[in-house]
């Protein structure tokens, strides 16, 4: 049974304030406990105002490592790159941002390379922050040919390469993504979504759990930690 707690806000600005505060608490707790913090952060548009708010906080950013939960197989200079947004936001603060893509264009080989990069990091993440697409994907775990590999990858496997079919219109490219095991290894998981349609979809995915037809339902169905879901209309 997925243990999900919903946090509702009247506006994206209110949600940004609250989620930045929660992420800040996770960071401070990690720095206090271990002198370091590892954050796996999503792409997409929802997190942008939250990143902007978070970047104003006065942490010892040099002790913080940021990785994308997933990324598109595009150059880091491309606006489709999740690492680009994270680098623009967190590198100037002194944080370390670790891209999980490079020159490799073959999705499977890119996935192996991404996994190797993540194996070099002090695991698990203190936070895995997820978004959800309108099709129920999360990170870059999509329904289709690569779903089983993403869900059933061994515990030690942190990333794989995927080629969604059909390619999502907002970013019609192959990707690398954290596996379900990597996502669920995080000390804390939080989700940010907006709009009633996504709320209805996520509530259904949580209700259906392991039998969900939506990737996010299948990912969360194995979660052992409580999931905080932040939502605004
Ligand atoms: O690379 C990506 O696209 C993201 O990691 C993806 O999983 C995102 O979180 C959802 O697509 C929601 O995106 P929005 O926040 O823009 O709705």
UniProtKB/TrEMBL annotation:
A GO molecular function term, named singly, is: 6-phosphogluconolactonase activity
- UniProt domain Glucosamine/galactosamine-6-phosphate isomerase: residue ranges: 11-223
Q: Which InterPro entries does the protein's record reference?
A: 6-phosphogluconolactonase_DevB, 6PGL, Glc/Gal-6P_isomerase, NagB/RpiA_transferase-like
**Which Pfam families does the annotation name?**
Glucosamine_iso
Q: Does the keyword Cytoplasm apply?
A: no
Protein keywords: Hydrolase
Entry EC no(s): 3.1.1.31
Pathway where it operates: Carbohydrate degradation; pentose phosphate pathway; D-ribulose 5-phosphate from D-glucose 6-phosphate (oxidative stage): step 2/3
Q: Which reaction does it catalyse?
A: 6-phospho-D-glucono-1,5-lactone + H2O = 6-phospho-D-gluconate + H(+)
Q: Which GO terms describe its biological process?
A: carbohydrate metabolic process; pentose-phosphate shunt
- Alphabetized SUPFAM superfamilies for the sequence: NagB/RpiA/CoA transferase-like
Q: Membrane-spanning regions, if any?
A: none
Question: Which EC class heads this enzyme's classification?
Answer: hydrolase
Top-level taxonomic group: Bacteria
The record's family statement is:
Belongs to the glucosamine/galactosamine-6-phosphate isomerase family. 6-phosphogluconolactonase subfamily.
| NCBIfam families tied to this protein | pgl
PANTHER family referenced in this protein's UniProt entry, alphabetically: 6-PHOSPHOGLUCONOLACTONASE
Function noted in UniProt? Hydrolysis of 6-phosphogluconolactone to 6-phosphogluconate.
Q: What protein name does the entry list?
A: 6-phosphogluconolactonase
Q: Which gene encodes it?
A: pgl
